[in-house]
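Two records follow; treat each independently.
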Amino acid sequence: MKIALLTRNKKLYSSRRIIEAAEERGHEIVVIDVLRAYMNIVSHKPSIHYKGETLEGFDSVIPRIGASVTSYGSAVLRQFEMMDVSPLNESVAIVRSRDKLRSLQLLSRKGIGMPLTGYANKPDDIKDVIKMVGGAPLVVKLLQGTQGIGVVLAETQKAAESVIEGFMGVKADILVQEFIKEAGGSDIRCFVIDGKVVAAMKRQAPIGEFRSNLHRGGTSSLIKITPEERSTAVRAAKIMGLNVAGVDLLRSNHGPVVMEVNSSPGLEGIEGATGKDVAGMIISYMERSLTPGKTKTRGKG
């Protein structure tokens, strides 16, 4: 196969591992800085240009699109789809998963376990929103936040009101969520490929911190997940329409709850914790499953 890897930094661990795994299996892989690609949107023969040349002859494309460039990155990926290049994850699924509110609404409609979540626009709704999620302590999240940025734990009613008023005062879009105290500052990252959990790790927040993101000093370790957790992760990825996903779960008193479904999950933590060749599993999935011109959402918005 000739594979396009959409990434802004080929030196990142995840990008390096995907390149290694593809080359070890005899594939040609071309790294493309998604922001430097540009498109000719024309009837019958859409094309993508990069550094003065037309990109041609690709069988598949692996999107590693950062959250900050979701809009442009998904447009480039969509153009590949229009050119009958098969994506690892489709553009519609990526955009769906990146919209925190939309993704939670879709998960809730299908009965997936998740924290009590409130969303409001006006300051006079604050007290009722706080009550709706079970009161303080609670978590306030920016809709556009990533890697734990823009996530605040409000431990009292007054603190919750102040934080929410502050975010609303600068017209930030936020979610208000139940705080799952029993999780103890840890979560579970389930790595899903083609409807199966191929690896799982526990992420533990450092002392004094409730966010378990590895970018914020969290540590990772191998964990054995329950059948219910496995099923929840697989269903969540399927609802988003993602072939490859990192599904983040918390262990609550009422079963596993989904915090987020990540369309570009990092490989360093999961490979380090489990010792598994997850990058190789991704390429193997592409070899057996991706067929040019068979994009399910081709032509859809």
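The next record belongs to a different protein.
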Amino acid sequence: MFAYAKTDLVAGVVVFLVALPLCLGIAIACGVPPVSGLIAGIVGGVVVPLFSRSPLSVTGPAAGLTSIVLVEVQQLGGLEPFLTAVMVAGVLQVAMGVLRSGRFAAMVPSAVIKGMLAAIGITIVWKQLPVALGLPGPLAGAASQIHPGAALLALGSLLLLFGWKHTPLARYPMISPALIVVVAAGFAAQAMAGIPGFALRPEHFVDVPLGGLTAILGALPRPDLAAIMTPGVWVAGATIAVVASIETLLSVQAVDRLDPLKRHSPPDRELVAQGIANSASGFLGGLPVTAVIVRSGANVAAGGRERLSALTHGVLLFVAVVFAGPLINSIPLACLAAVLIQVGLNLCKPALFASQVKLGVTQLAPFALTIIAVLALDLLKGVILGVVVGIAFVLYENSRRAVIATRDDAGTWRMRFRRDGTFVSKPGIVSTLEEVDDGEHVVIDGTGEYIDHDVKEVLATFMADAPQRNIRVTLVGIDLGHAQAGGGH
């Protein structure tokens, strides 16, 4: 951990500056006290590096879990039972790591993951628009209640965030545009304090407890441990565990590709570390955590090389919470909403939809249905539906295209297996064999492909009937030793 102490300490400061507004903003987006987001960032930064072997990933509250938190807090009847569900999720993640199930995250189709993230992005943008406009409630029917000062800050913040890449400061990866937005919005809010109609009210600012560590601990929500007997808590815990694990493993894989030292992070060890952190975060009143690519990417760009950078960022978050409460409380909510709107728009940008359309219906359908199901139902059901649709398309493609058949002028059919022949392929294979006319020659080539017993029985049945139709059959690379015509009936 301490092999690159000098560069890691600098990178840790940069990651802290990136993480601070995100921790606050995600907590607000989830409808929970801002301090819960900060606690999650502290736990993710301090606990995970002690158990993980991922050198560059950074853990904290993730925008990808926002919709889950919003739904489950409401369904479970409050934040306290939800925190118990977060602890349950941590235990389940540890079990998943011990059982070496990290590899199975790769089984979730790419289209489903993209659809899940796009739906999360849409949810974030929709939920943050009222905050950006200073509204006291939902967006619909509240145009007359828009606060000009909050709306102006949000608009200016969005312009700065999206225009950042065109500024000279964009050449310095150590400078966080989100932090610049937060600082600039804080000064702008002070400047507007004397302008009638534009001055922000107390409810338009972040509100974390003041008075040091004792006041913070006293204000933190506590898990309702009695709720562990409630089935809904276990369902919520399983949902968090599955989605957080997928997001973590995808982020770790992505940051490993950015690692200049080309190291590989063990996925099962990462699940154990994340599980311990989630149990601790839920117990202390924090949000669920995952490895997050935004903070991890900032870590790499700032020169981070080992886990000390993530640990440093966690310690600095703790120091900020305990000693810099007044500064944190001077941050306008509207600018944090702008930061999250940018995150949400990046998750559901039009280019993503265009690319899925170009890939065809087999990718577009699971992608679109996942988005619709996540928005209409919830995140876990949406992902499950997307996976089912993805599997259905795979089965359909395998049933139609396992065999390529061509017929030459001499009446010889050449059937070549281009993928494994399984029971799923039987309808397509039977359909192809039915096109063979009496008296023709058929060459069936399965070289290098796995042919299961169901398909062998289909071929054995065809060969048994072939002499009666004067059809000559040649098998290449296929052994029908134990296959019986008609399945032995």
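Discussion point: The longest helix spans residues 231-258. How would you locate this feature using only the token line?
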